[in-house]
Amino acid sequence: MALSSLIVNAPAEQNPAAADWSGRTIAYLGPVGTFSEQALLSQPDLATATALPMSSFVEVLRATEGGEVDYAFVAIENAIEGTVNASQDALVFDADLFIQREVVLPIHLDLMARPGVAIGDITHVMSYPHALAQCRHFVARELPGATPEAANSTAEAARLLAAATDELARTGAAIGPRRAAEVYGLEILASAIEDHPDNATRFLLITRDAVPAPTGHDKTSIVVFQHADEPGSLLSILHEFADRGINLSKLESRPTRRGLGDYCFLIDLEGHIADELVADALRSLRARQADVKFLGSYPIAGERADRVREEVSEAQREADSWLDGLRARVR
């Protein structure tokens, strides 16, 4: 299917800019109480949809690709720990989906335990591996003898702790969002224990068959599978963007799963597939590299982006009015 048709003919119910999301379904990494759910609920329109927690990133994306749900919502990148490889690899290698939107959520982590448990009682601390890594200084300082244990998510760690009936109930703790403590009846022993106060995670809203129309402040994500036997292939890829003045906000290499030493490049660039320069760059890449996967063009997150989009919209309205005036003179 042509990308242009995905943009022009995207049905209204697949447009993430629409305000009414009632009746739509969004799968996310569960259980209830994860940062994924918190980020989802931070968006007023997405919060009105039916949110369905699932046990893994792969399950979330498969449910979306198979039509069981309308959208997937997954963490893709953390400011401290970098790319969430499990979700990124599932999106790149295991699914055929399009990114609709990005959401950035500030991350604050709390230490929680069963009621009556003190910090001095803790011998085991559970959380998602990224969360454990983001609190390594606090754990080393305040819980030097505690054994770290990995869970499928921060909320899953809280749920397991709340359900424990053995020694874990008396000596265990979990690290996660405050909402997880509220959901599973745990007490907060220490707040904001993350090592870096400016920590944040980027989430993606993903669906099957629509690319949002350009807003004037957009990002495009692609994967380029280089020809390993061609000298300078990476340089030629970069030239496609540099020669057209297109800024890259991310360039990351990942193994392709095809063989040792075989890598692809994940690229985020400024602009939309509907922009002439971006389209021309991707067309040339496709012709030269042959294997290019388009992941989506979507609005950049953030207050600055919102302001830019408002300014662009106003400028477009003025330009349209000016053009209409010129056309009215044609006889």
Describe it.
The structure is a single chain. This protein is an alpha/beta fold and 331 residues long. It folds into three domains: 22-107 and 200-209, D-Maltodextrin-Binding Protein, domain 2, CATH 3.40.190.10; 110-190, D-Maltodextrin-Binding Protein, domain 2, CATH 3.40.190; 211-316, Alpha-Beta Plaits, CATH 3.30.70.260. Helix content is 35%, strand content 27%. The chain has helices at residues 3-8, 35-41, 57-65, 85-93, 129-134, 136-142, 154-163, 168-171, 178-184, 233-242, 276-289, 303-328, and strands at 25-29, 50-54, 71-78, 82-83, 98-106, 110-113, 124-127, 147-150, 172-176, 187-190, 200-207, 218-225, 248-255, 263-270, 292-299. Strands 1, 2, 3, 4, 5 and 11 form a six-stranded mixed sheet that branches. The protein has a five-stranded mixed sheet with strand order 8-7-9-6-10. It has a four-stranded antiparallel sheet with strand order 13-14-12-15, with helices on one face. A hairpin with a 3-residue loop joins strand 3 and strand 4. The longest helix is centred in the last third of the chain and has 26 residues, at 303-328. The chain is globular. Mean pLDDT is 87; it is low at 8-18.
What CATH first level of the largest domain would be assigned?
Alpha Beta
CATH fold descriptor of the largest domain: Alpha-Beta Plaits
Q: Any idea what the CATH architecture of the largest domain is?
A: 2-Layer Sandwich
What proportion of the residues form beta strands (DSSP E)?
25-35%
Number of helices in the DSSP assignment: 12
- Which whole number gives the mean pLDDT? 87
Separation, N- and C-terminal Cα atoms: 40 Å
Biggest sheet layout: 6 strands, mixed
Instruction: Kindly report the name of the CATH homologous superfamily of the largest domain.
Output: ACT domain
What is the subunit organization of this protein?
Answer: single chain
Q: What's the number of structural domains? A: 3
Q: What structural class do you assign from the helix and strand content? A: alpha/beta
Poorly predicted runs: 8-18
Helix fraction, binned, reads 25-40%
Q: Rounded to an integer, what's the Rg over CA atoms?
A: 23 Å
Shape, per Cα inertia axes: globular
Instruction: Give, in order, the helices and strands.
Output: HEHEHEEHEEEHHEHHEHEEEHEEHEH
Number of DSSP E strands = 15
